[in-house]
Amino acid sequence: MIHPEVHNTVSLEFSAMARAKSVGGEKLHSLGLGEPFWPAPGAVRQKLSEIALSEHYGYKSPFGNQILRQSIAHDVTAIADARIEAENILVTAGAKQALSVVFKTLLEDGDEAIVVDPCFVSYRPQVFLANHNAKIIPWSLTDDFSIDIEALKALITPRSKVLVVNSPNNPSGGLISAVEMQALVAIAKNHNLYLVCDEIYRDFVYHGATFVSANAYRDIYDQIITIDGFSKTYGMTGWRLGYIVASKEFLQNAVKVVQHEMTNVPEILQVAACEAFNLPDGWFEQYRSVLERNVDHYNNALEDISILKTAPIKAGMFCFPKFDLGDFTSDQVAVKLLHSQNVAVTPGVVFGKDWDSYLRVSLSSPEDEFHDAIEKFATFFRTFL
Ligand code: PMP
Questions:
Q1: Residue 2 located in a structural domain
Q2: Pocket lining for ligand 1, CB < 6 angstroms
Q3: How far apart are CA 267 and CA 59, in angstroms?
Q4: How far is the CA of 94 from the centre of ligand 1 (A)?
Q5: Per-residue pLDDT tens for 2-29?
Q6: How many CA atoms lie within 13 A of 305 on its CB side?
Q7: In this structure, what DSSP letter does residue 177 have?
Q8: Whole-model pTM?
Q9: Which atom from ligand 1 is nearest to the alpha carbon of 33?
Q10: What's the CATH number where 168 sits?
């Protein structure tokens, strides 16, 4: 039975409404969903088309393709300066399934998941789908979307089992610093919690900010689990490829979920995805730099609009401005924006009722399209009545 708190992703419904408008022939400026504006790398697609014709793929290991696991382990080792081996990697159908496998492996009746708030819309449903009787304890970020360690400590009870964080954060554009990560690891260690850190936007950092992986602290504390995937950096949302990085012991249990739910992630996709690790160093810079310029453009275009306040955008694919428009809800503002300017954004209420005076704006568009969309977005707020 589906838990009553598991709803459809409203952002998908909203974007369907937006799509209906564009089907009607109108030019739509989409700042709604978290889709990279770039395609999957040519080498990955080329490999897929070659092996589709020449190879046969049957059932395979539920842990994932060994070469892919080795490549991921190598990559994570380089990022986190930690020794990660292929046996620390479990390949999943997207980061979403990685999260679901983690929660299914861990959560018993009555266990509490402390979940960063605001957060990616699937965390809460996934906790309840994993265990109907689990509890969510929302942990609010501060007004500028940084971390309040004391507030976090106050939430922990003997039933707390997992602490779920996301850095860079969707929707806020926040980033966990080294000092904050160290504090989170210490809290997890002292209270015997699993620290689950979703790092899917790890390559999306701006203006010299530094991404810190929870994996860098694996020597201090073994119960660290990170989530990542190919959707964002590699523009491979439709491929559904993600992975978990965790202790070998944890993965021996977690793999049972993949084994019994899907046998294995399609091997043909995994073999093609190995090519992503042969791309030249700095390959992603061409896209990261566009996103960084989009951040600058956003900040410049909106700085004189006092009814809109945006916390510093340090990282990730989104920013999360707060509007001051009296009783207007985020849904009403988003619908008005869509109808009057043909600009689609995600209403903040999607992230919970505390975020009903926010809008999530995606930074992922080619620069010229982003400029057009932000000009209309700014006009909307300048002329809002
Ligand atoms: N985590 C976060 C924070 C996300 O924003 C998303 C996708 N929007 C995911 C996980 C899921 O990614 P995937 O496509 O790999 O399932």
A1: no
A2: 34, 94-96, 120, 166, 170, 198, 200, 229, 231, 237, 242
A3: 8
A4: 7
A5: 888 887 766 566 666 766 776 677 788 8
A6: 24
A7: -
A8: 0.96
A9: 8
A10: 3.40.640.10
